[in-house]
Request: fold
Amino acid sequence: MVTGSHIPADRNGIKFYGPNGEISKADEAAITRFVAERSIAYCLPTACLGTTWPMHREEAIASYRERAHDMLEPGSLSGMRLGVYQHSSVAAELLVQVLRSLGASVVAVGKTGTFVPVDTEAVDAATIAKLKKWVREFGLDAIVSTDADGDRPLVADENGDLLRGDLVGLATALFLKADTIVTPVTSNSGISKAFGFAVQRTKVGSPFVIEAMEASHGAGGVIVGFEANGGFLLGSDCAVNGKTLTALPTRDSFLPILAVLGTMASTKKKLSRLRGLWNLPVCASDRLQNFPAESSRRLMDHLASRNALQHFLASFGTVAEVDETDGLRARMLSGEIIHLRPSGNAPELRCYSEASTESRAMAIVASTLQGAQAFALTDEIEDL
Reply:
C-alpha cells in the first residue's frame, strides 16, 4: 500500500507499507538503491497503460471499523458530547461513524475541500484557537481529529487544550495494560520514571520504534510503541474487553483516540482532570519552518562542542548531560531539558523542552529557536 503524508503539499511525499505494516529503514535503503540502479533504464510496460486497478476501499474500511469496535464495549461512550475536527483527513467520516456507533453525540466541524497539513506535534496557534472556540460553542467533553493521512491522533480536552502525543500514548499504554513501551527520546522524560513500564528510547521515526519493538519480543508481555506526535503502534497481541486485539506495527490513530475516550468513560473524569492525575513534566515544542537542512547541519556540528553548547544555552544555566541519540538533548543542572533536532522529512528545525511550568517550557523553546535563527543568519553573513 502507498499513501501520502501530512506535510504541506509542495513537499509531500509517499509512504510504503507491506502486508505486515510499515517498511523498515533497510527496506527504504533497498528501494533507494533499486531506483538509482534502474530508473534510467526502466520503461513502464505498455500493458499497464490504461489499466483499471482493483479497488478494495470498502473492504478496508469495514476491516478498520471492525477493529475499532473491538476496542470498546458497545455504548461505552453514551452520554459524551464529542467534536470531530474533520479538515482534510481521510479518516474524518469514519471517525464520526465509529464514535456515534459507540454511543457518543458527535458534532463534526471544520470540514475542508482543500488539503490541510495538520502536524500533531506542532499544532499552530490558529488551529488551537479553533478548537477552543468549538468546545465552548458546542459544549464538548473533548474534541478529536487526526492528521491528513489519518495515522496520528489529535486530542483536546473540554477546554480545547491539547494533550501532547506522548501523553496520549501513555494513556493508551495504560488502557492496554502494556508491559513494555518503546518511544523516541523526544517523548516526555516522566514516562521513564512512572507507572512501572519497561521503557526503551529510540531515534525519532516509526521505523526505529518498530525495530526496537521487534527486538523486545523475547521479554514477552504486551509491547507498545508511540511517538511524541501521537503515532501509536501495537507490537503484540493483547486482550481488550474479552477480545484479542492483534498486533499492528504501524501507526493507528483510532486506537489512542478510543483509549483516551474509553478512560474518560470508565473513570467518569474530565480529560483536564486525568491530565493532572497522570502528572507528567510540563513539555513544549515548536519548529522553525523553511529552515534549510544545511543550516541545521551546521548548527548541529557547531553545538557538538560542549563549550559551544554551553555558550548557546548559557541563559538557561549549566549543561549537566547531553543525549545525542537524535539531535542534541541537553539536561540542565536545574532539571530542565532542551532538545534540538532537524526534521527528518521537511526543511525544519524542531525544539522540545521540559520545565516546571508551561509558560517556562514555551519560553525556553521560543528563545532556543531564536538563537538557532540568529546562528543561521550569522553563518550566512560569514559565507558572503
